[in-house]
Amino acid sequence: MTERAAIEGRPVDADARFMLHARYGHFTAMQVRDRRVRGLELHFERLEAASAELFGVPLDRAAVLGSVRAVLGDDVRDASVRVYVVETDRPHVIATAAPPHEAPSGPQSVKPVPHRRYLPHIKQASGMLQAHVGRLVAREGFDEALLTTEDGLISEGSITNLGAFAGGRLIWPDAPMLHGITMRLLERMDVPQERRPVKVADLPGFDQVFLCNSWGVWPVGRVDDVPLPQDDALMGRLHDHYDRIAWDPLD
Fold it and tell me: Which terms are listed as keywords in the entry (predicted)?
């Protein structure tokens, strides 16, 4: 018989069945404003590297741009867009669009959770484990989870990268992680930077701890029940650099 599928008693079409099977792959997430995106070349590089590693084939950049343009249509100029590259019979490019998402406006709370991702350098299409970790800490009143080793060594957040300032230097955790697009853009700041092991116990000693992802950059106000120092000048430098990053056209 022909393959079929149904959701809550309703038969679904061929495209929906395809989506149900398309679980092996990777993706990138971006904020689109006025049909432009920050770091477009970095998004291409991420998709190309993951496609080569997972599928052993090159990425079709034209298919990526075509899918993004198609999901935006002629009328949508601002959106949260995801581009998936998933494999069934072969790799396919799928784009999704949702309402635009802005960064949180004030300091956020984080809770450490011992968890190590498999292939952490790849933004994986099946993100159930990270979503579960995020939901767990949200139930306890926290905004984000910090993924750590059992002894508290930080790698990243469940959907973010973590950075910190110490003595005028920008510090990034030296651990297996997803090298986020916004993190890569912030690495272009004209400020001394280094990677070093960072433990949860180190966070109160930093001048400013922050999180970043495609939404933007925002401060961390506390880890567990421990308040963290806040430095408006340092956050201002981060926002100034981020706000000056050029937006690349999608059309």
Answer: Aminotransferase, Transferase
